[in-house]
Design goal:
The complex is a heterotrimer of chains A (about 280), B (about 280) and C (about 250). Chain A is α+β, with helices and mostly antiparallel strands and about 280 residues long. Chain A has five helices and twelve strands. Chain A has a single domain, classed as GHMP Kinase, N-terminal domain (Ribosomal Protein S5, domain 2, 2-Layer Sandwich). Chain A is about 25% helix and about 30% strand. In chain A, helix 2 packs across helix 3. Chain B has about 280 residues and is α+β, with helices and mostly antiparallel strands. Chain B folds into three domains: about 60 residues, Beta Barrel (OB fold (Dihydrolipoamide Acetyltransferase, E2P)); about 80 residues, Nucleic acid-binding proteins (OB fold (Dihydrolipoamide Acetyltransferase, E2P), Beta Barrel); about 110 residues, K Homology domain, type 1 (Ribosomal Protein S8, Chain: A, domain 1, 2-Layer Sandwich), CATH 3.30.1370. Chain B contains eight helices and 16 strands. In chain B, the strands form four sheets. In chain B, strands 8, 9, 10, 11, 12 and 13 form a six-stranded antiparallel sheet that branches. A four-stranded mixed sheet of chain B has the order 1-6-7-3. In chain B, strands 2-5-4 form a three-stranded antiparallel sheet. In chain B, strand 6 and strand 7 form a beta hairpin. The radius of gyration of chain B is 21 Å and the shape is flat. Chain C has about 250 residues and is of the alpha+beta class. Chain C has a single domain, classed as GHMP Kinase, N-terminal domain (Ribosomal Protein S5, domain 2, 2-Layer Sandwich), CATH 3.30.230. In chain C, helix 1 packs across helix 2 and helix 2 runs parallel beside helix 4. Chain C is globular. The chains are: A alpha+beta (about 280), B alpha+beta (about 280), C alpha+beta (about 250). Chains A and C meet through strand 3 and strand 6 of A and strand 3 and strand 5 of C.
Chain lengths: ~280, ~280, ~250
């Protein structure tokens, strides 16, 4: 209910308390430095979408929906289907969010998520082609952020991946005599090859912490996200904010992302019912 | 609204004791010539609630104790706020309200304050937490704060936690019983602003436990055995708690007048107003 | 949205039941939850048939930009928005003309219930997000927003409950769903303040004669009153636990 300015002013008290705890390996909410908050995944929450998932990560809450249309491929990739990931921080999600087109931070968020899905090869886009150069499946993943409490990257990534895993798209067929593909009553899953998982860490002082809350993000010096696939590869990464990381911290973050990503992947699989 | 409601409240007039009932905005609380107090409005011969809350009828007065809502400053309230900005002549304070508090430089530096000589940030910086008193407010201008007085000023250590301002009386408990339970169960000291901002001072681990307890009070404010739940959480046995001398009557807890033992400045200024301070007439 | 009339006989069968099995005066299933969003000052979630809608209230709060503040009352702002995945075909996330109009009538439907004069120089933001749309999303959105405003603890004269009635296959029915809206002959969404019986929203889209209009209006009012009971139960449920609900429902 507070009168809101555009940015969060963090209390000096909270900053001091946070630093005092970090030295002891603890955080304001009682977690250890590398502990993730509870992650919950529920799929098929929007019946009208071809796929959907609602994900909570602590108090951060997002919902992702997948819509699939017929589209025209890009001229330089005539043999690949289209995949577009967008995100919107809904104004109902935070006192700091404003209605309007996505700002640069939200665009970064969507693009990093998009890269994780694309570069991991999660969806085999070459199988989404009906008539090369003319007719391909266009997969739109839209993620709406419902409540902001830090680490939107991991929450949005998890919702995107879970929604894709739950997706059943209408099968189109190309008529024998040629022409535009025709929608059939059959449904099929997307051609999924791996499950990418994003793990984001914040650097506060000299400490790296996994899954920062809004309070922690407000004081963090920098942020690093790594996406790993289920074959042990790192497939996307993004360092954000003006601060910097030591070389060792980067290596540590990459290793931690893979390790912590395994746990989250299991929860994702359970959430979509594939385990 | 309907005849049933009418009957209940004519009966209340005949038997003068405190009657409580859950109401939502627009709901008729009472009919007739009762006095409309807080969070109610008169529509013809009806008195209607304007809030989600507990309607109370006692003697000749009707009011609603709200269960949610923003903090509206009142003169003499103790508030805990955060400095978010400053100009040449004043600080701007986020006091968890729909209005920013204004703390004039003169009230800190004295009458001879001069922006050329004195620097506001020497005393209070953006991000500092303060305990302050509301000294003027009339909704047409931002509330005026002061930090001169015992217990007021910059808070040097501790952690803040926010609760709904409507639940401040519940956190304080009857004659301060709830806050004392939490303080003694966690070895922390607590300062409760009327604006719903609570400062907890203690060792870091103790603070975490105290905040867990405060959050429990906020989440379960409607629960009749809240005191037991908090004691359970903190591992306090009921015997110890009874040593505190005030035993709560569960049904009365929600609307008790709030008095903090922590600071004199919080005394007796809550949404409760006069009504529950009075004993029902025989 | 021209109401073509057309061949819509199949929308009501010989037993007088509608396409989803409802009677002509029966609402779709409605579920309301209060206080579902942590950051918001007040919030509510409503499922109204297949509609899945969230409403959040922020405020009263300081106005930015400052010059848009009103000296004598709070500035009420409303945004009705549909998620891209809420419809059959993906919806462009940018606000459409339809969403902008609904945001306006929604604000005007809620404003009479709010005691904005108690919060001068502040703003109250109401955000309604349609996660899945069915017919009647504006009514469901208004009902949810009104509960969210009460949850936020803003002084109100009354709640606002909304419901539509319409004409389908030549018959007046309450609470028109998506298919009935598209195939039917008329849609009459209204919102009322249930305790004072004031109408705060009325739109009409399609043809009704005198008798049909009166009947449809009456159906919609009755629908609003049913919605109101559910709003009340949801609010009591949040603050006192579900067990307390029947006691107060008079």
């Amino acid at each position: 209910m507070s009168a809101v300015k555009k940015t969060i002013v963090v209390e000096q008290l909270k900053r001091a308390q946070m630093n005092e705890l970090l030295v002891k390996g603890k955080r304001l909410d009682g977690r250890g430095l590398l502990d993730r908050r509870d992650l919950t995944v529920v799929t098929n929450v929007i019946e009208k979408a071809e796929g959907s998932a609602r994900v909570t990560l602590g108090n951060t809450e997002v919902i992702a929906g997948v819509k699939v249309n017929m589209g025209t491929p890009f001229p330089d990739t005539p043999d690949k289907g289209l995949l577009v990931v967008s995100a919107e921080v809904l104004p109902l999600a935070s006192p700091y969010a404003e209605p309007g087109p996505p700002d640069e931070r939200t665009i970064e968020l969507a693009r990093v998520t998009d890269r994780g899905v694309r570069e991991s090869g999660m969806i085999d886009v070459s199988k989404l082609v009906l008539v090369p150069g003319k007719h391909v499946y266009a997969v739109f993943v839209d993620v709406s952020i419902l409540n902001v409490d830090g680490n939107l990257f991991d929450a949005v990534s998890a919702a995107t991946v879970a929604a894709i895993l739950s997706t059943r798209i209408p099968k189109y067929e190309v008529p024998a005599e040629g022409g535009a593909p025709v929608k059939t009553d059959q449904k099929m899953p997307l051609p999924v090859q791996t499950i990418p998982v994003a793990v984001t860490m914040a650097k506060i002082g000299e400490h790296l912490i996994v899954d920062p809350t809004s309070e922690e993000e407000a004081v963090m010096d920098t942020r690093i996200t790594f996406v790993s696939d289920d074959r042990g590869n790192i497939c996307a990464g993004q360092k954000g904010l003006p601060g910097s990381l030591t070389l060792d911290q980067v290596i540590f973050a990459a290793r931690t992302a893979k390790l912590k990503g395994e746990e989250a992947r299991l929860i994702l699989k359970q959430g979509v019912g594939s385990v | 609204m309907n005849i049933k409601v009418k009957c209940v409240y004519f009966q209340v007039k005949a038997v003068p004791e405190l009657k409580r009932r859950f109401v939502i905005p627009g709901e008729v609380v009472a009919h007739g010539s009762l006095r409309a107090e807080t969070n109610v409005m008169r529509v013809g011969d009806k008195i209607v609630s304007t809030r989600v809350g507990m309607a109370e009828i006692a003697h000749d007065a009707v009011r609603v104790v709200p269960l949610s809502g923003p903090y509206i400053p009142r003169i003499d309230d103790l508030v805990v706020g955060k400095v978010i900005d400053y100009s040449a002549f004043s600080w701007e304070v986020d006091m968890n309200s729909c209005f920013f508090g204004v703390l004039p430089a003169q009230s800190v530096f004295g009458r001879d304050y001069s922006p050329a000589k004195d620097s506001l940030t020497d005393r209070l910086a953006v991000g500092d937490t303060i305990a302050a008193k509301v000294i003027a407010f009339d909704r047409t201008r931002d509330p005026l704060l002061s930090i001169s007085g015992p217990g007021l000023g910059r808070i040097p250590r501790g952690q803040t936690v926010k609760i709904s301002p409507a639940k401040v009386p519940r956190l304080i408990g009857k004659k301060g019983s709830m806050i004392r339970s939490i303080e003694s169960g966690t070895n922390c000291r607590m300062l409760i602003g009327q604006n719903g901002v609570v400062v907890v001072v203690g060792a870091p681990d103790d603070i975490l436990r105290a905040i867990t307890a405060v959050n429990l009070v906020e989440d379960q404010a409607h629960s009749p055995d809240l005191t037991e739940k908090v004691q359970g959480l903190l591992g306090i046995t009921p015997q110890e708690a009874q040593g505190e001398q005030f035993q709560e009557r569960p049904n009365d807890e929600q609307v008790e007048p709030s008095e903090s033992t922590v600071d004199e400045a919080t005394r007796g200024k809550t949404d409760e107003g006069e009504l529950s301070d009075k004993e029902p007439e025989e | 949205m021209g109401k073509a009339g057309g061949d819509s006989r199949s929308l009501i069968n010989e037993q007088g039941l509608r396409i989803d099995g409802r009677k002509i005066d029966e609402l779709r299933p409605v579920k309301i939850e209060v206080g579902i969003l942590r950051n918001a000052d007040g919030s509510a979630y409503i499922e109204f048939g297949k509609n899945k809608i969230m409403a959040a209230v922020y405020g009263p709060k300081e106005v930015h930009p400052k010059h848009s503040a009103l000296p004598d009352k709070a500035l009420l702002r409303c945004r009705y928005h549909m998620s891209p995945f809420s419809t059959e075909e993906r919806k462009n996330p940018a606000p459409s003309r339809r969403e902008i109009e609904i945001s306006k009538v929604m604000r005007e439907a809620l404003e009479p219930a709010l005691m904005l004069e108690d919060y001068p120089r502040t703003a109250i933001d109401v955000f309604v997000e349609v996660l899945q749309s069915d017919g009647g999303s504006r009514c469901a959105g208004i009902s949810a927003a009104s509960v969210a405003l009460a949850d936020a603890g803003i002084n109100m004269r009354d709640l606002v409950a909304a419901c539509a009635a319409g004409k389908v296959a030549g018959q007046v029915v309450v609470d028109v769903d998506d298919i009935e809206d598209k195939e039917g002959q008329a849609d009459l969404p209204i919102a009322i303040m249930p305790s004072s019986n004031q109408v705060t929203l009325l739109q009409l889209d399609g043809q009704l004669n005198d008798e049909e209009f009166n009947k449809a209006f009456n159906f919609a009012v009755q629908g609003c009153k049913q919605v109101y009971q559910l709003q009340r139960e949801a609010l009591i449920g949040k603050y006192f636990g579900r067990s307390e609900v029947p006691e107060g429902g008079q």
